[in-house]
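Input.
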Amino acid sequence: MPNDCITTYKITGSLNSLTKFHKTIVKLETADSDEIVGFNTLAKHYNVPLLEWPARGYIYKVQFENDILTLETWSAWQGCHDLFFNINNVLGNTLSISFREIEPNCEIYRIHDEGGFFPERTFMPINRDEELPVQLV
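Output.
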């Protein structure tokens, strides 16, 4: 069983590309499910090749406000950033993609921020026997 990875994407750039991408996500929305659209469905729609293994994950929340497309995703083990970067290639490299990836079971906390969306940083306890909380500053 994989570890859960929660990733927040903040996507900005060409309003035309953002609108097209948002409309595609809405069009592909899965009925009667927690997921809005699975990564495999998105990859097939944009004809983006996947790795030897399928992209295990989905978008579970979408928000498009103030020319920022925010996607909340669940995936197995790690975020599927290459999928979104490849979709950007299909859309003519007109988007800026920032993300915050949190995979707490393996203590992965990774940020790629092109727009100042994720200013927080994290400190993890070295000794696993300690009951120290994660501190965000």
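The two ends are 32 Å apart (CA to CA).
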